[in-house]
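Appendix B.2, paired examples.
Example (i):
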Amino acid sequence: MVYYQKVARNSWLVLCLVVSLLTFTLLTHPTLIDFPLSFGNAAYLLALIILFQFDNVRRGGIYYTFQEGIILFIFLNYGLLPSILLSQIGIVIFQIFSHKKEIRLKRFLYLYPINVLFDLIYLAYPSLVYLALGGPVGTGFTYSEAIIPFLGYLTAVMLVSYLQCRFVNRVLYLKYDWIRLVRLQTLVYGTSMLCAFLGIWFYDENPLIAASVSALILLLFKRLLQQRGVTMEANEKAKRFDDAKERLLISRFEQETIDSLLCDLPHLIDFSEGWISIQQQRKQTIYNIRTKTIVDVLPLFHSLSAEQLQTPIIHGLRFDWGTDIQIDLPVDRHSMIAIPSITNEDVDVSIVLFHQTADAYDATSADELSRLLRIFCRVLHRSRETYQLYAESRTDALTELANSRAFYEEGAQQFASDRYPLSIILFDIDHFKHVNDTYGHKVGDLVLRELGRRIRSVQQKKQHVFAARYGGEEFVLLLNQSPQKQAIDFAEEIRHAVLDRPFVVDGYRLSITISLGVDTVEYPSERSFEESLRQADHALYVGGKHNGRNCTAHYANL
């Protein structure tokens, strides 16, 4: 803000200096104050200028009014001074009434002097080039004599456009493509010149009719350009948002839903930086949308009041933000859109985006983004329920370990990966039938539950271990990046976790032991998942059970 305050202050100083010089020039050369327009004609032409000022076309953060055709008509018929005065009056009215009440004063203080100075340059420099090349004006205008001067006029316009682009890029830090700007300015001024030429054709009949003809042709051309641009852009954007919504709706799980949104957002709406906050069950996760990484604090929202968090926040220029928005961003970040709170059940989502281009976002952008986030909230809430059902379908209710279905899915994935060597440890409880027959199935279930708890306790201390209840009293472990010796050591750790402490269940103190069979696959083509499982089972019964139980046997050592 301090930087832009300095720019505004310098702009006002330059404007005061230019106005002083112009006033001095007019006072010392009274003949220049010749104003050949009647009050009625001047009011009518000013009304046309104001009409074009408020009915503008926006491209890349720049407002194109197409008033240049009316200003050029005034210059060619009445001279440079009337065109400058009427244009400046139009700018003042536009600057005061074209913006929302909240930012009207800021836009006037920061932008009015810059707009006035560039308007003067756009009018004066090409017009002086036109006059220097012998361009005719007033009643002496002829088309043949105006061709070469108008080529000079257009060249001057392109040069001024280039200088304007350099100024806004380097001084105002607004991101404008000067090639695109010059191309659009050439289109605008070329069309304006054509309309001014056609208007002059009718000048002898009535000057106001001539001006009306120019204005009507310009208005029709602008409408076509505006409608074409808006329709094409709206259709493309609507299709992108619809595709993103479809991808969200088919997402099943939480992370899949979040990844879908993070991948789609950069293609749906332009931004330089962006963050999204996702809060579920009082747990908040904040993502940097560009990098898709988790960050600690979501910029902006912590500094806003509760009232501000109820509606979207949209700003088009850096100095519109105000002191209530405290965020450390480069000085060239101007546009901002924030959707502070979209809620569904226990899911709350907030998003904030910034862009280098001025006025990059509007109410339509906020509405589209809000609708997308509402769908995201609903899908995210549903995905948690879906995941809960999915997890329950893959979890053994008694031991809270994965079930055999989950084990077979995990095994197929691991053996298709590059995380070799892979080891399978298959084990069961020794004499478990005796436990059930002696103490009852209730005690047997409690033993299985306690064994599941001990397995989870050991599993949590190790990486790359997947544990499951294989069926009945049988359990299985899948270890990736685990060679033979490491697998045997881990199997022994599990055996001692069962052996070293008695199982105290339902008032009984039971000594439980397990027998384990191990198989290791060193590289992908050595054995399939099913073959390795069969060899671990063989090791369990041949090397474990037949050798007295309460021991570990590896298939390679049989």
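Example (ii):
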Amino acid sequence: MFFIIWSLSSTRRSNRLKQTITDNATAALFILDSRGYCTFMNPAAEEMTGYSFEEMQQQTLHDMIHHKHPNGSAFEEEDCPIRKALKQKKAIRTLEEVFVRKDGSLFDVMCAVQPIVENDTISYTIIEVRDITEEKRTQQAIIESEARFRAMADNAPVIIAITDETGYFIYVNKQWIDFTGTSLKDTLSRQWTSYLHPEDREYAGQKYSKATEEGVSFRMELRMLRLDGQYRWVASTSTPRFDADGGFMGHITSIIDITEIKEAERRVKQNAELLQKLFLEVPALVGLVRAPDMQYVLANPLYRSLYGNRPLVGKSIYEAHTEREGEGFFKKIEEVFSTGKPYVGNEVSITITPTGVGSPMEAYFNLVYQPLKDLNGNVEAVLVFAIEVTELVTARSGLLAANDELSDKNNELLRINSDLDNFVYTASHDLKSPIANIEGLVIMLRDILQDKLDVEDEKVLDMVTNSINKLKGTIADLTEITKVQKELQSKVEPLRFDETLKDVLIDINGLVEETGTEIKTSFEVDAILYARKNLRSIMYNLVSNAVKYRSPDRTPEVRISTYRQDDYVVLEVADNGLGIKKEHQHKLFSMFKRLHTHVEGTGIGLYIVKRIIENNGGKIKVESDHDVGTTFRVYFKEIPVEEEV
């Protein structure tokens, strides 16, 4: 263009051709003289600047359209690159500048400056100007769009990468750099497969090649190297990019770390396998029936064994079972499907065919039909879980029969025991009168023969009197035992231990003073709820025995104390008396057993004490060392239980 115009100007030929070319040029053309004044401008230049040629000739081109910076400040001519180029006699091919229109508006231009030198002097200058305002706007829009894309990509919760048609990176977002630890520069020099686990590269390459050939999107799950040296499972989704002509340009790929999801899937699979194993090996019957076709999808070996191990899975319950086997079962499971409510049955009778052939048999099961529902609350399947209790039911039936027999025996023993109690009571009552008569006759005989009895006769009568007294004592003891048996529900009341002991000591005061016995007490528990006569009998027997069976070698000492232990109130009576040999202690609470014969007694007291205590839910223990002393501990229930025969 410049050469043509220059030729036309130099030779001044073909003015018409010149006019045609310049008038139809899309770029603005200016010709300046050596002073910088415009000597020519084409119509495009007039349209671009808003000035006519006549107006443009008033001042230099710089002062007309190039005198202001974009910020509004003055643009001095000596700073103008066009003027500098002219002074240096140099051409400028591309120069971006801002010109000023007649209306004062600024616009971006691209200039080409060609000085024409004749005789080493610039004769004139040709300037071509293109308005690039729209180009700049488009370029700025592209820059802003790219900035927005980068900001969005860098803040996206996924890794984003763009590759060219050869598989090399041309862009990665911040998440990629954070994940891999490689810089953008290093990344752009590598292919994407270099970041993959060696075992996944062949698979990924085949997938990539096929998708590229077909021009389609593709998705892969593979392992990708993280900056810490670990390979992480990722899900990669790639979409092809095409140019305006449909040519393949590469892929844009999004990558998500799915390691935790993979681990969760692994655990779910592991749990499913474990659950499957549990169902198959659990010592219970497990079956799963799905809706809506009532088909078995699971039946463990124990479940199948009830029906001769015939195939159940894949069949509906109506196909898998005979009509007799389905009695009750069909109806109940249909009810669970329709209502969505579980069914729980205990000792349910079910017809089974364990051999697969022959007659069916009845068995008993504790079972649950549990509905399994989807997120909408619809029943998807019913879990059948059962445990066979046939042996338990059979054993209980036998036990009930045995219990009935035992109850009959117990009733018979109660009658016998009652008869014995009645006999003892009656016998002791009926013997009192004859013994009283004999005792009276002996007294009368003494009175009649008062001065006629010799020593031997007196001795015989004394022996008869002693025998009568012993017999009376035995009868009294038998009467007391009978009372203990019969008084099963004695009235209880709050009783203080110190007051009960005081009452007992009144009765044995003479013996205590005669022997010089020291009585020591320590009542941590002051009172107890008990029958008055029973507590007195217990304390009387234990304290009086402690005094009676004293050691002649030391001053008698009896220590009486109470305290709490577990659920009991404990009464402890300890002495320093004769003690009891270990081999005789098991006889201590037997009826009519006396381990020391030098003291009078019937051997019935401790037996009665033990019966009273045990009848009220308590217990009694003894510790004793021969010639050291004895300790009795009575354990009272704080709330006495009623005696049961």
